[in-house]
Amino acid sequence: MPIKNFLILLLTAMIWGTAFVGQALGMEYVPPFTFTAGRSLLGALVLVPVIYFLDRFKSPARRAEESTPEAKKLVWVGGILCGIALFAAESFQQFGLIQTPVGKAGFLTALYIIFVPLIALFRGKRSSGILWIAVLIAMAGLYFLSVKGDFSVGSGDILCIAGAVCYAIQILIIDRYAPKVDGVKLSCIMFLTGGVLGAFFTLIFEPGLTLSAIKAALPAILYVGILSNGVAYTLQVIGQKGANPTIASLTMSLESVFAVISGWLILGQTLNSREALGCLLMACAIVIAQLPTKNK
Question: InterPro entries recorded for this chain (predicted)?
Fold first, then answer.
C-alpha cells in the first residue's frame, strides 16, 4: 500500500480512536440519544460542501449516470439502511460508555472485524480456518476483558458488543451498496438518517434536556460529529482507493489502540493485568483475522 494511503488511513484510525474520549466527555452533560443525534447531523452537514466540491470534478457522463432515477433510489435506500444500522451501533456504544472505560470500549467495538465474517457465514460465504482461530482467540480475550471474577459480564460491556454487531451489519450493507453509488453521498444520507432517528428518540426518551447542558457538551459533539463522522469517513473513502483492502482494514482497526492510549492520556483510565491480557489477545485476533489467505 502506498505510504500516502497508509498515512490517511492511520489518521482515520486515530480520529475514530480519540473520538471515544469525546463521547465519554460529552456523556457527562447530555444523554446518549442527544449526543448521537448531534454527531450524526453534524456529520451530514460537513459532507454537504464535500459533495458539492467533488461533483465539480466529475465528468458529464458520470453526473448523468448518477442522476438517473434508479441511481438516486439506490443511494437513498443504501444510505437509509446504513443510517439505521449506524444509529443502532452508536447508540449501543454511547450507553455502553456510561459503565465501560474508553479503552475497553474501543477494543470491544473492534470486534466488528470478527463479526463481519461470522454474519457473512449465514449469507452462505464461508471463511478460512485461520479466521476461526482468530474468533477463538477473540473469545478468550473477551473472557479476560469483560468477565469478572464471579463470571458476570458488565451491562456496559454487553452494550458495546451489541454495538460491534451493529457496526458489522453496517459494514456489510456498505459492502453491498458502496460499489454501486457515490460513497460520500451514501455517507451523508447515512448520517442524516442517524440524526433524524436520534432527534426522534431524544424527544421521546430525553425530554428534560437543557440549553446549558448542550452548550457544555458542544465541544465534544463538534469533535466527534465533524472529525469522527464527517472527516474520518471521507478520509476512509480516499485512503482505500488503490489500497490493498486487507492492509487497509488492518490499519483502520488500530482505532482500538488509539482508544486505549487516548483514554490513558486524557481521562487517566487504566486497565488491570487481567483486562490488559484480554486486550492483548483481542489485538492478536484482529491481526490474525486480517492475514491474507488463499481461496480455493
Answer: Diverse_Substrate_Transporter, EamA_dom, EmrE-like
Asked if 145 contacts 279 with a C-beta cutoff of 8 angstroms, the reply is yes
Q: With cut-offs at 50, 70 and 90, classify the pLDDT of residue 296.
A: very low
Sign of the Cα pseudo-torsion (149, 152, 156, 158, in order): positive
pTM exceeds 0.85 for this model: no
Contacts of 281 (CB under 8 A, 6+ apart): 137, 138, 140, 141, 144
What's the farthest any 2 CA atoms get from each other in the chain? Answer: 64
For residue 36, give the nearest of 190, 234, 240 by alpha carbon.
190
Instruction: Name the grid cell of 40.
Output: 450524526
**3 state DSSP class of 240:** coil
Q: What angle do CA 249, 127, 103 make, to 5 degrees?
A: 40
Domain boundaries, the chain: 3-289
C-alpha–C-alpha distance, residues 136 and 138, integer Å: 5
What is the DSSP track for 37-99?
A: HHHHHHHHHHHHHHHHHHHTTS-HHHHHHHTSHHHHHHHHHHHHHHHHHHHHHHHHHHHHTTT
pLDDT digits (tens, 9 = 90+) for 256-291: 777 777 777 776 767 678 777 877 887 787 777 666
